[in-house]
């Protein structure tokens, strides 16, 4: 027969044992603990569609998507994780035909409207391990600080629509977002587009067969360690007055420039490797630019560096091959400790410029330095090989 005291003690022990059991689902490393939901288009999981799972989820929850094809336009405004649970190439998201669109700042024909497969709104959500296929399956991060990692983006958007301008992006960062876009693979289709002076980290992505990275980045943007092969227009484009860091990217065989800088920007461009550009490895197009261009390796581009900038600092770059190593078209840049070797012309200085040259090593085939009439340049302090006139 139980006494009242013994019964209370028994319930206390039971309560203690229940309280020590972890009833929450296991979350991936780095993800806040919460509920875990599964999605399977075949109907064997918690939900048949990703949209249903997102609607049920709360901040900190994880949604695991099983292999299958999902045709949806999903809006995520919660701090959740949406991750593939299986081989990434077997978990495929398409956008519905005639599905919704949203204003992005970089839509087709300048309309600023993009369709989407996933729209992230003011969130710190994590997207990983998913494949996006088809022209309209755009991923958009609008505001917030989401993370896009380990995604495959195949044939999304359009690389260009006549001329050199992008017609539709594949990944869009806008609304002042500080998104992290890291370790993704983009093939064919359109570029990663950054708008509204957003400040993303775009790092360690592989782009091939057309896509590039473009934007009016904010000062805190970092474009680092990406591999961009055979973009149809350019590798990286800066189209706004800002000072991002563009560092350690590898760009091969662009159809225009490796890197294009427009407007009155002052980025730091360092330690990039650019080769095979049909125009310039680095093209500073607009007067008033004040970039720092240092430690880059530029090989077999038609022109290594083109400068139309007032006070660019060009230091410690290596230029090999091509027609012209460095062309100074306007302004008063400072060129120090650069090496130009194997180009037809080393440094070309056009009229109405006043560059400073010091510590450069020049060994060109036809002329180490070619100066337009009426331009006075002090060439002392530079090393030039024999056989190519200054």
Question: What is this structure's SSE topology?
Answer:
Elements: H1 4-19, E1 36-39, H2 50-56, E2 62-65, E3 68-71, E4 74-76, E5 81-84, E6 91-94, E7 101-103, E8 113-115, E9 118-121, E10 126-128, E11 131-133, E12 139-142, E13 147-149, E14 152-154, E15 171-174, E16 180-182, E17 185-187, E18 192-194, E19 201-203, E20 206-208, E21 213-215, E22 222-224, E23 227-229, E24 236-238, E25 245-247, E26 250-252, E27 259-261, E28 268-270, E29 273-275, E30 280-289, E31 292-294, E32 297-299, E33 303-309, E34 313-315, E35 318-320, E36 324-330, E37 334-336, E38 339-341, E39 345-349, E40 356-358, E41 361-363, E42 367-371, E43 383-384
Parallel strand pairs: 1-2, 2-5, 3-6, 4-9, 5-10, 6-11, 9-12, 10-13, 11-14, 12-15, 13-16, 14-17, 15-18, 16-19, 17-20, 18-21, 19-22, 20-23, 21-24, 22-25, 23-26, 24-27, 25-28, 26-29, 27-30, 28-31, 29-32, 30-33, 31-34, 32-35, 33-36, 34-37, 35-38, 36-39, 37-40, 38-41, 39-42, 41-43
Antiparallel strand pairs: 7-8
Oligomer: single chain
Q: Hey, roughly how much beta strand do the residues contain?
A: 35-45%
Strand order of the largest sheet: 1-2-5-10-13-16-19-22-25-28-31-34-37-40
Shape: elongated
- Largest sheet: number of strands, sense, barrel closure: 14 strands, parallel
Termini Cα gap = 110 Å
pLDDT < 50 runs, ≥5 residues? 1-32
- Structural class label: mainly beta
Cα-atom radius of gyration: 27 Å
Number of domains: 2
Give the total of beta strands.
Answer: 43
Whole-number average pLDDT? 88
Helix content: under 10%
